[in-house]
Write a structure and sequence with these properties.
Low-confidence stretches: 22-32, 38-52, 271-277
Largest sheet: none
Protein name: Flp pilus assembly protein TadD
Distance between the termini: 15 Å
Signal peptide: 1-23
TPR repeats: 149-182
Mean pLDDT: 80
Radius of gyration: 19 Å
Structural class: mainly alpha
Number of strands: 0
Strand content: under 5%
Order of helices and strands: HHHHHHHHHHHHHH
Shape: globular
Pfam families: TPR_16 (PF13432)
Helix content: 55-70%
Keywords: Signal, TPR repeat
């Protein structure tokens, strides 16, 4: 059976596998950032005017230490913009989305028109699953005459999760016009095609992302996920082992393999014939 209904079921299955795999950390990210389907940095340094941070390079223990330090500073001055945004970022990265949202909601009241605050508030809303409110905040942070590619990409990622694939990809293309060959945008575009079940196209974008300047560990791990979803487990493990320990890479691929073997789902992925006519 290779008709439209089968293709739709296959794509729905891939969507569920990709989302579960990402939520379970199979791609190696410290947490699931709902403002990205790829690897745009979750750090507050994505803002065009905030100083750069290194949170995305930290492990969980370092992030917890950073949250303690930033929490102390935040309590001393809750209206300090940089401290509050960085604190909320670390809270999101340590799976404390509700607390991060509370921090950013308070800051947004103090700075209702600040672009940096609106952008960070949008990410906090998205991480708590409040996608429509997140879109509103990100759009208010955007300046149409000088569009910020990071906000375009983040908005696209949220639209992808709302099932608005065409709108999401239009935004990724606009972001690439502003920032050509940016690894995180290409990775977001690749994950968009993963979510729609178009794995070959997804792999093309992921490989472009891996070869682009600024590519990081998460981009390469997303490539491993796409390759694994196509059943090339040995190749996926080889890619993953460049970023993770050999045992972590093996465990991730074994987990993915077990998911694909459930309910005869692997046969759905193996059948790559397109519907005729």
């Amino acid at each position: 059976m290779t008709g439209p209904a089968f293709i739709q079921r296959k794509r729905s299955f891939i969507l569920s596998v990709a989302l579960i795999a990402l939520a379970s950390g199979i791609s190696g990210c410290s947490t699931t950032d709902k403002t990205t389907t790829g690897s745009i940095s979750p750090a507050a340094s994505n803002s065009p005017t905030m100083p750069a941070g290194n949170f995305d390079q930290m492990n969980q223990q370092q992030l917890m230490q950073a949250s303690t330090s930033l929490g102390t500073r935040y309590q001393g001055n809750p209206k300090d913009k940089a401290t509050a945004i960085n604190y909320a970022t670390v809270l999101r990265m340590t799976n404390r989305s509700d607390q991060a949202l509370a921090v950013m909601r308070s800051l947004a009241i103090a700075y209702p028109k600040d672009r940096d605050v609106l952008a960070a508030y949008g990410k906090a809303l998205a991480s708590s699953g409040q996608f429509e409110a997140a879109l509103d905040s990100l759009r208010r942070a955007q300046t149409p005459e000088y569009p910020d590619w990071r906000l375009l990409s983040a908005e696209g990622a949220i639209l992808d999760q709302l099932g608005k694939t065409g709108e999401a990809r239009d935004l990724y293309r606009k972001a690439l016009q502003v920032k050509p060959d940016e690894a995180s945008i290409l990775s977001n575009m690749g994950m968009s095609y993963v979510l729609s079940g178009e794995l070959s196209t997804a792999e093309t974008y992921m490989r472009k992302a891996v070869g682009a300047p600024g590519s990081d560990s998460r981009v390469r791990q997303n490539l491993a996920l796409v390759v694994g979803l196509q059943g090339r487990f040995d190749e996926a493990e080889q890619i993953a082992s460049q970023e993770l320990s050999a045992q972590q890479a093996k465990t991730n691929v074994q987990y993915l393999r077990s998911m694909l073997s459930q309910q005869n789902s692997w046969n759905m992925l193996k059948d790559k014939k397109s519907p005729k006519g």
